[in-house]
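Sample entry (96 residues):
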Amino acid sequence: MAKKILIFIAVFLLVSLAPASAFASETTTYTYTPSVNSFLEWSKTQDAYLPSAVYLQGMGLNSPQDMCVRDGFVYIADTGNNQIKIVGLIEEDDAE
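Predicted structure, serialized as tokens:
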């Protein structure tokens, strides 16, 4: 009996520790939200966040961990390069 339990535990551990695959979808996804009129009615709404572009890709960031926006600048904590990158939100021509 003890041998069967040990085999079961070994198989369980092997299955639970196996790497899992993740797949990204490039299609629109939807969320179901309770209706305003009744909690029993559900409305299909489009997700609020759908990435359309990647900004600051050419800055050479390596493991950015945090960011802060203050006084028209974005401060990015680039931990891989041990730097704080500063990006201006307002260009010189726009400020005039």
